[in-house]
Specification:
heterodimer; A: about 120 residues; mainly beta; seven-stranded mixed beta sheet; four-stranded antiparallel beta sheet; B: about 110 residues; six-stranded mixed beta sheet; five-stranded antiparallel beta sheet; about 60% strand
Chain lengths: ~120, ~110
């Protein structure tokens, strides 16, 4: 149980285009999902917290107009990288916190590797 | 916010050896998790352990919340244990946001 999927797993796009990444909780409902970014050989940095039915909360330094987050349902959150540039190339990982759990464990998706040419 | 520090940053072992990875955190926690990141980038949940001791096969973990540290033990290491091990924690007033340490890169040689 507690499986999180991401799609696509890998995407290559041209500079200036927008890319949408989906994060789904497959066997549980998630009131809260999180989006992280990871650079090579580095740790995970939280970008934003996504709550179902409300606006995402972005971490300091993360451009909300650049990284659009929509948490449309209890099982789906999307991250759209708008007008992507090469510096947006990175590994993006989502996580989900199950609804109704008595504890705070988070479960992670397999990640999406974005390359902007 | 909470600070999470892991040590050592790198660790090289021979197959069959035991190891201890450490995670120090700067504040009280209501979530502490250990992960193994595989070569494809997937974070695999090892332990949810804000306090106490847990064991799962060759792996075990102990968190001493009052002293603000957690330890991950790997016994009889195998080459498949290689990878990056992350500790991540959430402090009380953080809206469940996990803060990650920088990780320990474990290499197990045959």
């Amino acid at each position: 149980g507690a499986v999180v999927s991401q799609h696509p797993s890998r995407v290559i796009c041209k500079s200036g285009t927008s890319v949408k990444i989906e994060c789904r909780s497959l066997d549980f409902q998630a009131t809260t999902m999180f989006w992280y970014r990871q650079f090579p050989k580095k740790s995970l940095m939280l970008m934003a917290t996504s709550n179902e039915g409300s606006k995402a909360t972005y971490e300091q330094g993360v451009e909300k107009d650049k990284f659009l987050i929509n948490h449309a349902s209890l099982t789906l959150s999307t991250l759209t990288v708008t007008s992507a540039h090469p510096e947006d190339s990175s590994f993006y990982i989502c996580s989900a916190r199950p609804r109704g759990f008595s504890y705070n464990e988070q479960f992670f998706g397999p990640g999406t590797r974005l390359t902007v040419l | 916010g909470i600070q999470v520090e892991q040590s050592p940053p790198d660790l090289i072992l021979q197959e069959g050896a035991n190891s201890t990875l450490r995670c120090n955190f700067s504040d009280s926690v209501n979530n502490l998790q250990w992960f193994h990141q595989n070569p494809w980038g997937q974070l695999i949940n090892l332990f949810y352990i804000p306090s106490g001791t847990k064991q799962n096969g060759r792996l075990s973990a102990t968190t001493v919340a009052t002293e603000r540290y957690s330890l991950l033990y790997i016994s009889s290491s195998q080459t498949t244990d290689s990878g990056v091990y992350f500790c991540a924690a959430t402090s009380g007033g953080s809206n469940y946001k996990l803060t990650f340490g920088k990780g320990t890169l474990l290499t197990v040689n045959p």
